[in-house]
Design goal:
The complex is a heterodimer of chains A (297) and B (433). Chain A has 10 helices and 9 strands. Chain A is α/β, with parallel strands linked by helices and 297 residues long. The chains are: A alpha/beta (297), B alpha+beta (433).
């Protein structure tokens, strides 16, 4: 483990963004401790030692580059194009972190300008960004926005000198191996194929009719809760699959079905087996799962 | 000779161009250089997809965008002859989470922007501690997330109500967290208990406060900000909530306000392409935000400030910080009276039946946010967004300046002018979207 006296330098740049990743990061419970481990040369909101104009001169490099937003080569920050900025800082840095789905895959701002915008290393699933082929150096922390704890994990690992294993899309396996479904409080309803009757109910699963992508989305939203307390599914909102390269899909509050079975079945499960299992599970009538929770309150 | 200043540590980036005589600012133009195409992206999509996409206009007030979208869809339902029914519970939850988003915004602005920038003007003894802002904001968004699932970027409001179904467990958790946040505000920010602060009727009552708010108040006076940065002294509040009064105001004199009078035009900046738009009510520019809200709600303290210091930077800044206290009290009331036994959601008729136009207006942290959409069988045919920062931070010609431009003219130097600019709580991502 490197000496704690040594502080890696960090620069946080923004491409085409809504600033959501910056604000999500501010929710990190151990933000002060994390900032102690780095020398923050530039960040768009937090205290830092350089101005954006100084940063845009590209005179020195940094150890860690965090990039937020989609990459548009022609977009300028303080008069310097993103192509030059990313080229310079990513070249110098030992680690590049794509914070959020826009920086990872292009996300929502690739959807708004598909021919121009991309992620750093990927455009959708295609390795087609300016840093393509640099899997390992570029850590993709997809999510719209990035979960603060995921960013905390990646940065602390770098500060500790610990390597971060990533999947084929450059996402840390420790965070993205499981599905968003994992840890969902509605799992029992999922198992027994009990759909939520309508929105605004704690009882029932959102996968069958209400568009939930939980069983199809690599993310640990329900393992590491949002803001320390919740997740979309906990409040009855379907998972929109925002960590996947195809975000944002269309008709987000609906599940495409075939004969009332979701067209896409959970990742890694054979469709035929799933159909059989569904038939059996549905034949159970479990009284506990038909009652309202508020009645206990 | 125009001097360019790059404004950062805002939401995004802006350029200011100054004409000066000596150091004194004689004219200023504002450019927002980044455009993202959010409105076009929605066309051809089912209207409910907008509930997921529009919060992504802005990382700091996405919840206000969500509410504006849901209100616009519900307005289209009403226009089409299928009014949407909302329970009191759904309305209270929507308002509570909106209020919490405003609270986090105001904390961040005070601690991450205003105190550090005021110190840069040479004001001593402010003891800025930016991470206090992040801490308090995170506490507010934690309460928000108990009902909305996450912050930023939740999509828990839907036509007909909200998707969540809180029990007393969440209500009690939320009340505990809110008490902690109020205790933080009382100890660190205000230096006095919330209820006493809310009885203040005069600026003099800030004098004994040994707190961030006390230091801010003295610092603004020390920097002469009670005599600077006046705009038109005309205000407008359009969003209707339990804590707002819809009105258009000349000085403090209220008149009826009608959102159909609101129109936009391209912003003017001679030296750089700006993607911002100016917003006017009728032919005129108006200032929006917490100061406007406080005056229209007849708040005694802020009206007293306004009597003494007009619409100066002092009044504008203090009104925003003071609104944090008003909103904390509002959040406490909303939680206490939350009626959990009602349904969260009453399903409306299928969206496919709706061919109509709708408008949704919300008071976002910085002022009225307007979403307008036209639906054809539930599909978005047209979508337009007017944001609060477009009202305040437009850029127009010398004979007819936008509020922030007018406020900056006469500043002693460029540093002072940029502080005046920041007193409007600049959000570049919202300005251009």
């Amino acid at each position: 483990m490197p000496s704690r006296l040594y502080k890696p330098t960090l620069i946080w740049l923004q491409g085409v963004t809504c600033n959501g990743n910056t604000h999500s990061f501010l929710n990190l419970p151990y933000l002060p401790q994390l900032l102690e481990r780095f020398e923050v040369l530039y960040h768009p909101l937090l205290p830092c030692t350089q101005s954006l104009a100084e940063t845009a001169h590209c005179k020195r490099g940094c150890d860690v580059l965090v990039f937020e937003g989609a990459f548009d080569p022609e977009m300028e920050r303080a008069g310097t194009t993103l192509k030059q900025l990313v080229g310079h800082y990513a070249g110098e840095a030992g680690h590049v972190i794509a914070a959020g789905s826009c920086a990872s895959f292009g996300g929502i701002f690739k959807a708004s300008a598909p021919n121009r915008n991309s992620g750093l290393a990927f455009a959708g699933e295609q390795p087609d960004g300016p840093l393509r082929g640099r899997v390992g150096k570029v850590i993709n922390l997809s999510g719209c926005p990035v979960h603060p704890e995921w960013l905390g994990y990646a940065l602390m690992s770098i500060a500790d000198g610990r390597p971060v294993a990533v999947d084929q899309l450059g996402r840390p396996t420790a965070l993205y191996r499981h599905m968003a479904h994992d840890g969902c409080l509605r799992n029992e309803y999922f198992e027994w194929k009990v759909d939520v009757e309508q929105f605004g109910r704690k009882e029932g699963c959102l996968f069958y009719e209400h568009g939930c992508r939980g069983p199809l989305t690599h993310a640990s939203c329900n393992r590491t809760l949002w803001n320390g307390v919740s997740s979309k599914m906990r409040v009855g909102t379907p998972c929109f699959g925002c960590t996947e390269p195809d975000f944002p899909r269309r008709n987000l509050f609906e599940t495409k079905t075939n004969m009332s079975i979701p067209e896409e079945v959970p990742v890694g499960v054979s469709k035929r087996a799933y159909l059989t299992m569904t038939g059996i599970a549905k034949s159970f009538k479990i009284k506990r799962l038909e009652e309202r929770l508020i009645d206990d309150d | 000779m125009m001097t360019k200043a790059l404004i950062e540590h805002i939401e995004g980036e802006a350029s200011l161009y100054f004409d000066t005589r000596g150091d004194k600012v004689t004219w200023a133009e504002i450019a927002f250089p980044h455009f993202r195409g959010m409105e076009r992206m929605l066309e051809g999509r089912k209207a409910t997809d907008a509930l997921v996409l529009t919060p992504r206009v802005c990382g700091i007030c996405g919840h206000a965008h969500l509410m504006a979208t849901v209100r616009a869809i519900e307005a289209a339902y009403a226009e089409a002859g299928h009014p949407v029914e909302l329970t009191r519970k759904a309305q209270s939850l929507r308002e509570l989470t909106l209020v919490l988003e405003m609270i986090q915004n105001h904390f961040k602005w005070l601690y991450l922007v205003i105190l550090p920038e005021l110190e840069k003007l040479g004001v001593e003894g402010l003891a800025p501690a930016p991470l206090k802002g992040a801490f308090a904001a995170a506490q507010a968004t934690k309460i928000l997330a108990l009902f909305a699932g996450q912050w930023p970027h939740s999509s828990y409001m839907i036509p007909g109500g909200v998707t969540c179904d809180p029990t007393h467990l969440e209500r009690i958790q939320a009340a505990g967290l809110l008490d902690e946040l109020i205790a933080f505000f009382e100890k660190e920010t205000a230096g006095i208990d919330l209820d006493t602060l809310l009885t203040f009727a005069s600026c003099r009552e800030f004098n004994p406060l040994q707190s961030d708010l006390g230091r801010l108040e003295k610092g603004l006076i020390a920097a002469g900000m009670h005599k600077k940065g006046m705009a038109y002294d005309r205000f407008v509040v359009l969003g209707e909530h339990g804590f707002t009064v819809r009105a258009r105001l000349k000085h403090t004199r209220p008149m009826k306000a009608d959102a159909s009078q609101v129109a936009t035009e391209a912003a003017v900046c001679r030296d750089e392409t700006s993607y911002a738009r100016n917003v006017r009510y009728g032919k005129h520019f108006y200032e929006v935000g917490p100061l406007a809200r406080a005056i229209s709600a007849d708040n005694a303290l802020i009206k007293n400030m306004h009597r003494r210091y007009k619409d100066s930077v002092y009044t504008r800044v203090m009104a925003r910080v003071y609104e944090t206290a008003l909103l904390l009290q509002r959040a406490r009331k909303l939680l206490e009276h939350l009626e959990l036994s009602e349904p969260s959601y009453i399903p409306p008729v299928p969206l496919e039946r709706i061919t109509a136009a709708g408008e949704g207006i919300v008071e976002a942290p910085r002022g009225p946010l307007i979403h307008r959409m036209r639906l054809e069988r539930g599909i978005v045919a047209d979508y337009s967004i007017i944001t609060p920062t477009q009202w305040n931070l437009g850029s127009s010609v010398m004979s007819d300046p936008a509020p922030a431009q007018k406020a900056m003219v006469g500043a002693a130097d460029i540093a002072e002018a940029t502080f005046i600019f920041r007193s409007f709580d600049v959000c570049s991502v919202c300005t251009t979207h």
